[in-house]
Amino acid sequence: MTRQELIANIRRKKSFLCVGLDTDIQKIPEHLLTEEDPIFAFNKAIIDATAPYCIAYKPNLAFYEAMGVKGWIAFEKTVEYIRSNYPDQFIIADAKRGDIGNTSKLYARTFFETLDVDAVTVAPYMGEDSVTPFLETPLPTSPEGKEKHRQHWVILLALTSNKGSQDFQTRPLSNSPEGEEPSSEKLYERVLRKSQEWADEDQMMYVVGATQGRAFEDIRKIVPNHFLLVPGIGAQGGSLEEVCRYGMTKDCGLIVNSSRAIIYASNGEDFALRAGEEAHKVQQQMAKEIEKLRK
Amino acid sequence: MTRQELIANIRRKKSFLCVGLDTDIQKIPEHLLTEEDPIFAFNKAIIDATAPYCIAYKPNLAFYEAMGVKGWIAFEKTVEYIRSNYPDQFIIADAKRGDIGNTSKLYARTFFETLDVDAVTVAPYMGEDSVTPFLETPLPTSPEGKEKHRQHWVILLALTSNKGSQDFQTRPLSNSPEGEEPSSEKLYERVLRKSQEWADEDQMMYVVGATQGRAFEDIRKIVPNHFLLVPGIGAQGGSLEEVCRYGMTKDCGLIVNSSRAIIYASNGEDFALRAGEEAHKVQQQMAKEIEKLRK
């Protein structure tokens, strides 16, 4: 999906909600456990119920890998299901990968060719050659032999929502010998600046936790137009209003993720219905923010 | 495996070689492609041929994930095969994972419970709560109901072997407000120091690329006793002799990885034989280094 298509979807659906498919076999409703593939059955119902209210899905790989082969199968089926039934949804593989060049290339092949997602989250610690292979994957060829020109994206970790983000991400760097950067630059600010040499706003987004409040102001000085993927609303305590106040751009520029608060709204037979209602509530809040953009 | 057991294995086998199982379907000998599971067939033959000369195996998850479900099955079978047939081998899942606490906990469950490896490589960018769940996993229970007390390890990325290691890892930090650290501390040095608050040398190792030469001297000032996992020998251009000169401790303190130079020594019918010969050559060099320790 291109940046323009994403922006059009956000405006049309009045939503910038991403539903996080952090599906845990220990948390899904008991009546699903008799299904052949309970994880996929859960995801399918959640997707059908929430699709009108969101513009993206973000399965977190950890939840699927934890179940070994079965989990991997459920993950593949989930991606295919979204792709086939809701082609306007942006699919993010939340994998936080990153390795030396030839290895990152394989991860890129996995997510963009074998699986055909739109975006992968990537960790920046190993630098340029660990990130750029995700930008260079040859575009996949469809089974009909026609080339698909799907735009794919890297979503780079910048300032995360967890407590440990203070250990390294917010550490100030000393003056660069080249004297190019402001003197008080923090590590995550360096990540934001340096990575703009690798890809522009058409192929790169950044993870910024909803718990980071006014740091969004500083971030917008460095990346005024890039989309930010914002986890941490709901269970982790971030505020949607605050994120919008400091982080929104004229094109919205935000994809806000909610996982547990939506997908585990109920663990009874009504789980999908309740997930849809929760997603709808968030979408209604978001619609108000989108309206402000138009004024 | 405990630190003491690892050191005993190294002394007994006069080797600190780790064979990297970066198994790529496009690079394995053609005659294996008719096997039911070519990747596992390749790994099994390589393991049988190299086991006398190494003390560890390191499958890199990227290579397995790139093949989807089939790859995941081959990965599980490979871990089980080593565990059953070569119980004195240290198994490293080279996964470079790291996520918020509850997600890292799931990755830990995958690698230490579902799969029963000894160690996982972890990226430090997200800080303490992204790393410590790998140290806290409840120990697995064997099928017989007897508790296994397998020690598990985190191998944290510190200074990697790739060019991109210069983008962030070697950036100098400015003086800490607490004034605790030396003024010229680099990011990777901060990672080495900070992470010692999370686990000691019995549960933590660090990745330091063989291409980093004399940086090993600085690293040994910060982590004089920790084991270092050293990739980058062979195909990536690092020198074993140099790594030993600057990085070895009285307990060896090194696990040196070689992947492509060993496993792809030949792509004919003699691939396993040639891999064994290459591993043996490296082991003979290592034996000389181990001898020096004893003087």
Walk me through this protein's architecture.
The structure is a homodimer of 295-residue chains. With 295 residues, chain A is an alpha/beta fold. The first copy, chain A, has a single domain (3-294), classed as TIM Barrel. Helix content of chain A is 41%, strand content 14%. Chain A has helices spanning 3-13, 38-50, 61-65, 68-85, 101-114, 128-131, 133-136, 187-195, 215-222, 240-247, 260-263, 271-294, and strands at 17-21, 56-59, 90-97, 119-122, 153-159, 204-208, 228-230, 254-258. Chain A has an eight-stranded parallel β-barrel, surrounded by six helices. In chain A, α2 runs parallel beside α4 (68-85). Chain A is globular and about 60 Å long. The mean pLDDT of chain A is 92. At the A-B interface, α3, α4, α5, α6 and α8 of A face α3, α4, α5, α6 and α8 of B.
